[in-house]
Design goal:
Number of strands: 2
Number of helices: 1
Length: 44
């Protein structure tokens, strides 16, 4: 596991933020999205 992968695994999603970084692919997740538009990771 790379340092970047380890950091992503420890990431916390702030559902009130305007956007977040996906912990799986590091893509941008817009506010209110139930999943990452890049990789499909479900957040809730």
């Amino acid at each position: 596991m790379t340092a970047e992968e380890a950091a992503a695994a420890d990431a916390v999603i702030d559902l009130d933020a305007d956007e977040n970084s996906c912990p799986a692919c590091m893509g941008t997740i817009p506010r209110g999205s139930p999943s990452c538009p890049d990789c499909g990771l479900r957040l809730f």
